[in-house]
Specification:
It is globular, with a radius of gyration of 22 Å. The longest helix is centred in the C-terminal third of the chain and has 13 residues. It has two domains: 168 residues, Glutaconate Coenzyme A-transferase (3-Layer(aba) Sandwich), CATH 3.40.1080.10; 235 residues, Glutaconate Coenzyme A-transferase. The chain is built from 13 helices and 26 strands. Helix 1 links the parallel strand 2 and strand 3. With 423 residues, the chain is an alpha/beta fold. The N and C termini lie far apart (58 Å). The protein is 24% helix and 20% strand.
């Protein structure tokens, strides 16, 4: 490992035609990300691959010779994605590592943020493993910010010194994602979801306020398990009070399993050397066959719209890009295959201003279908729970209308009545 002092020391690495991968989500190395943006004008035909940046993503609008490609825009790239300034790959998380394993995608440079070497010289990928192992296997030139505030997490997170070419000291803490304030609608949705989760369930939740609210409702249950794509601060109280034991899981008993974390610095500190929580590649965490073998697997994910055929859109609305499929299809499929599994999707019944129903007669042609009715068991709004499993198309429509915002139900019934071929 060769210490460097500034980005200019490695600028010659970024040759015309280079492909660069940057560490994902809250693990994105902030200094290196900012310098990519600052030096974009001097680059030529460089492609940058990202996943769900949760900070500023200063390279998003840098232009020049830097083209940004993302597997999920996250908070940092939504504006640029909606404007069409970046390329998006709608690959479910389970499939991303294979793109690098079979060299469909290649990486010349990998930019990481790592926990410092331990007594054995091993560093750690910390709070985001995702597809980094598959990229490392290509043996790209690795540049790493070393951050003492990055936890040395357990699981498949180790990075050897001989895998890293250049290091510099990080200037900022890992990206934090503090909890937001909940409104009454979100609280009611969380209460309905919590009512579907029973003792011994293995839980997957997404990122954001609603997943945290759901987890906050589960403290009275016992022998819960966690197998998720991402975890937040809300997991810790369930571990501390004994609600989460992971005792009944067929795979990784006694361990919470995830590929990412997003939360506050005290939460990251609690992940340091925490043997009850393991981080693994998304090829494992999102493996549908493995998920299907977890009895009682409950996948809880938010969507933006659902139509009367039971097709859900979690990606874009009103011309704005919010996400890509991410891990939702993987977890939804796995949950519907698991013994006593439940695939649960949640949404507000209407837009926040009340002007538009989020339960619609049919998704617009330009709107992607993120997950179909075959992989949805329950739909939850603030008005209740619709169970879709086992229903014919007409039954799905009636059940969904019952949990729509009351002011839109008559219009939805009229559509359902005149369209006998729903589905």
């Amino acid at each position: 490992m060769r210490p460097i002092n500034c980005f200019e020391d490695i600028l010659p690495l970024f040759r015309p035609g280079s492909s660069v991968v940057i560490h994902s989500a809250c693990a994105e190395p902030q200094y290196l990300a900012s310098q990519l943006g600052s030096h974009a004008a001097s680059l030529r035909n460089v492609r940058l691959y990202t996943l769900m940046p949760m900070g500023q993503a200063p390279y998003a609008d840098a232009g020049g010779g830097l083209a940004v490609v993302t597997f999920s825009p996250g908070k940092g790239l939504r504006k640029a994605a909606s404007a069409g300034r970046i390329e998006m790959l709608r690959t479910p998380l389970s499939g991303i590592p294979k793109l690098f394993n079979d060299r469909t995608l290649t990486a010349d440079i990998l930019l990481l943020q790592l926990a410092p070497p331990d007594e054995n010289g091993a560093m750690s990928l910390g709070i985001s493993v995702d597809y980094m192992r598959a990229v490392l296997a290509q043996r790209p030139t690795v540049v790493a910010e070393i951050n003492p505030l990055m936890p040395h997490t357990c699981g498949d997170t180790g990075v050897r010194e001989d895998e890293v070419d250049y290091i510099l000291q990080a200037q900022n803490a890992p990206q934090a994602v503090p909890a937001a304030a909940a409104d009454q609608t979100e609280q009611r949705i969380a209460q309905h979801v919590a009512g579907l989760i029973t003792h011994g369930a293995v839980i997957q939740v997404g990122i954001g306020l609603l997943p945290d609210l759901v987890l906050g409702q589960l403290g009275a249950l016992y022998d819960l398990g966690i197998h998720s794509g991402i975890i937040s601060d809300a997991v810790l109280p369930l571990l501390e009070n004994g609600a989460v034991t992971n005792a009944k899981k067929k795979h990784f008993p006694g361990k919470c399993i995830t590929t990412m974390a997003a939360g506050t610095q005290p939460f990251y500190d609690a992940l340091h050397r925490n043997r009850s929580i393991e981080f693994h590649p998304c090829s494992l965490t999102h493996d549908v066959k493995l998920i299907a073998e977890l009895d009682g697997f409950c996948a809880v994910n938010s969507v933006l719209q659902i139509d009367l055929a039971g097709r859900a859109n979690a990606e874009r609305v009103d011309g704005k890009v919010i996400s890509t499929p991410g891990g939702l299809p993987d977890f939804a499929r796995g949950a519907t295959l698991a013994r006593n599994g439940k695939s649960i999707v949640t949404l507000r019944s209407a837009s926040k201003d009340g002007s538009r129903s989020n339960i619609v007669p049919a998704l617009a042609p330009e709107v992607p279908v993120t997950v179909t009715a075959d992989h949805i068991d329950y739909v939850v709004t603030e008005h209740g729970v619709a169970r879709l499993r086992g229903l014919d198309p007409a039954g799905r429509a009636r059940t969904l209308i019952a949990i729509a915002a009351p002011e839109f139900r008559a219009e939805l019934r009229r559509h359902a009545g005149c369209c006998s071929s729903i589905g």
